[in-house]
């Protein structure tokens, strides 16, 4: 591997003509083993540039002249030990997607579509609340503090614990006074569970008869 190389870059996007927070680019720089202290990231309205040296002595360097302008002040950065994750706010509110990430229309060997985050332009509203940028909270701004990645996730959207195999809603069993639930309501469910294992229950009831047969055989041996 050469001492200096271009990192792999993946990207996806969302767009909006009315909501700035839904009008952005995902850009990930694959820079394994590069610590934040050994990296230099620069984000301007028209370009993203990065230089960083890994613990193995490899220097990653890339410059990304963007197709259109972004808003650095409202962009987000998260630097991990595997990659640099960027959520770049597009400056112009526009429903249409950018036709490409970079200014020049040509093939770049290091640039790939991030299919894990990509959605089609006419389907992006369906991504809605599950969207990566909204749920992956806690980015600092360029050069800012990094925060926790779970802070903005609404766990109510992940589905309740009820249903098949889930925990029962005990609040539905509580009395009018708000006291302890009436656990007798579970009697029917317990009986049903016992019925499912009925064959085993019948075997248990036969055990005393087996013991009686054993006692008779012992008396015969003694006599």
UniProtKB/TrEMBL annotation:
GO BP terms: chaperone-mediated protein complex assembly; protein folding
Ranges that cross the membrane: none
Domain CS: 4-102
Gly residues composition-biased segments: 137-150
GO cellular component: cytosol; nucleus
Region (Disordered): 136-158, 184-223
Domain of life according to the entry: Eukaryota
Protein name, per record: Co-chaperone protein SBA1
Organism: Penicillium cinerascens
């Amino acid at each position: 591997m050469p001492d200096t190389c271009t990192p792999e870059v993946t990207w996806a996007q969302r767009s909006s003509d009315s909501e700035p927070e839904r009008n952005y680019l995902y850009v990930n720089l694959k820079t394994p083993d590069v610590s934040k202290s050994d990296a230099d990231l620069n984000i301007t309205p028209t370009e993203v540039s990065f230089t960083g040296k890994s613990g193995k002595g490899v220097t990653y360097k890339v410059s990304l002249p963007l197709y259109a302008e972004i808003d650095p002040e409202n962009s987000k950065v998260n630097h991990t030990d595997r990659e640099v994750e960027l959520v770049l706010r597009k400056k112009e509110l526009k429903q249409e997607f950018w036709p490409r990430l970079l200014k020049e229309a040509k093939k770049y060997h290091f640039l790939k579509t991030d299919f894990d985050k990509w959605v089609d332009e006419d389907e992006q509203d369906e991504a809605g609340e599950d969207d990566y940028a909204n749920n992956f909270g806690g980015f600092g701004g360029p050069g800012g503090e990094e925060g926790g990645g779970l802070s903005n996730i609404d766990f109510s959207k992940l589905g309740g614990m009820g249903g098949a195999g889930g925990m029962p809603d005990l609040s539905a069993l509580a009395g009018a006074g708000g006291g302890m639930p009436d656990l007798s309501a579970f009697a029917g469910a317990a009986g049903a569970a016992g019925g499912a294992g009925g064959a085993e229950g019948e075997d248990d009831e036969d055990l005393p008869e087996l013991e009686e047969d054993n006692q008779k055989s012992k008396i015969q041996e003694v006599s």
